[in-house]
Amino acid sequence: MSNLLLEINNLSSFVRQKQILSDVSLSMKKGEKLALVGESGSGKTMLAQGVVRLNPDIRFSGSLKFNGTEILSLSAKQLQKIRGKKIAFVFQEPMTALNPVQTVGSQIAEVLTWHLGLTQKDAYKQALTLLERTGIENAESKIHAYPFQLSGGQRQRAMIAMAVAAEPELLIADEPTTALDVAVQEQIMALLNDIQRQTGMGILYISHDLRVVKNFADRVAVMKDGKIVETATVEKLFNEPQHEYTQMLLNAVPQPLNEEPPQTATVLSVENLGVAVKEKSGWFKTHDLPLLKNVQFELKQGETLGVIGASGSGKSTLAKALLKLIDYSGSLKICGNDWQHIDNKKLLEKRKDIQIVFQDPFAALNPRMTVGEIVGEAITILEPHTASEEKQNKIIKILKEVRLLETEFGVSQNILDRYPHEFSGGQRQRIAIARALIVQPKILVLDEPTSALDLQLQKQLIDLLKELQKKHQIAMIFVSHDLDVIAALSHKILVLETGGKVKDYGNASDILRQYSR
């Protein structure tokens, strides 16, 4: 009897006439943890989804066997019996994968009634057991919660509970920890390890995060341009990479900045900053729920402050408060101006001094506006008297600075007329940076801008930000859960803990020394 769980031979895939996968051959043993790594667009997700043929518009050739059964020859009805029961998926973004109008308990119970034939009562009882098994606190109340009422880590745990409910033989985890902070990442990976040991299922783990892969997988397969370029054990791949592409991926891990903070003028001063929201505490009563408490720091021209902390510690809340997108208490001075008492007309003028780049550029960029319109919008609003020709020149200049699809003649008009969906994730992030920088701000706030990018794109974006900072002497506040990225950019680091309190603040080298022990 074969010990192979998955056998892929000369698999190719086509979307209309375009070939995506090319002669992919890969095998996976029962109970094995196999990682699939590579840059965005390398074909990782298409290969994984091809295992259960999730997209009917994709045409396959070659052979793809699961437990000896040829998947490519199965009918839609036969595939339904395999999906969820024999092969289960954990997707990258649980908020879009979970049904927003059903409680997490009902969604887990649905798997149990559909695949195992349990009654509704028994399914709910088993769903509660599964949630408790994933380590969700107060599982008895969370089972009745809707996805939006859970944190990112809790939603991912709920999705894992749903995926393992029918005890599948193969679990495919597609970037399950990308948007989670380091502490929650470790918890999710430990959870997957525990479940794998208890059930003996195989795990196909898709990721661009080589640090997680190194600590989790048994073997690694490296993909590039729809092909497998190298397969090896974790030890061999990380110690003796054979293919030049694998070597490039390993060398793309960010290196610490190791620079002293610049002795320049202070552009941002924050004292006793607090943020609170109203929360109901009865039918007619409310109380203040603090999100940030007594936050204090300074930022100098040309300096980068890294902000780290667990989910719910207030990192993004701090970013919004700095731009006065939400109400706050305390003192916040930008270039000497106290923003607490500034009127709305003056505030609009001063917004030129501080701009923000959001985590998800696809959500932050207007899909109905062209790149030229998006990048030039800030000039239209903040510098309304700028002549059309001057505005166009500024747009082209900033797009060149962020190195967005330059031609030998400069930035082509075709780029200015294209829409966000026509660009890759890394290119969209460059558009977002160009939009923020076009009004020459003194401070740039970046909220998790690299979390969804693979290592090579991360490195390119980090190098670009360093170059732009030196050229324009911009002060930056970089919010992230990735310590490597924070170390590569930051002169100082602010550590927030749950409840929005400052746990540590100081020079990057001192803070990183504490957290690397």
Q: Structural class given helices, strands, pairing?
A: alpha/beta
CATH fold category name of the domain at 266-515:
Rossmann fold
CATH homologous group name of the domain at 266-515: P-loop containing nucleotide triphosphate hydrolases
Task: Report the radius of gyration as a whole number of Å.
Answer: 25 Å
Largest sheet: 6 strands, mixed
Number of helix segments? 21
Query: What is the overall shape?
Result: globular
- What share of the residues lie within helices? 25-40%
Q: What's this model, at a glance?
A:
It is built from 21 helices and 20 strands. Strands 6-7-8-3-9-10 form a six-stranded mixed beta sheet, sandwiched between helices. A six-stranded mixed beta sheet has the order 16-17-18-13-19-20, with helices on both faces. A four-stranded antiparallel beta sheet has the order 2-1-4-5, covered by helices on one side.
Account of the protein in words:
The protein has 517 residues and is of the alpha/beta class. Among the domains are: 97-167, no CATH class; 266-515, P-loop containing nucleotide triphosphate hydrolases (Rossmann fold), CATH 3.40.50. It contains 21 helices and 20 strands. Strands 6-7-8-3-9-10 form a six-stranded mixed sheet, sandwiched between helices. It has a six-stranded mixed sheet with strand order 16-17-18-13-19-20, sandwiched between helices. A four-stranded antiparallel sheet has the order 2-1-4-5, covered by helices on one side. Helix 4 (104-115) runs parallel beside helix 7 (152-164) and helix 5 (120-133) crosses helix 7. The mean pLDDT is 88.
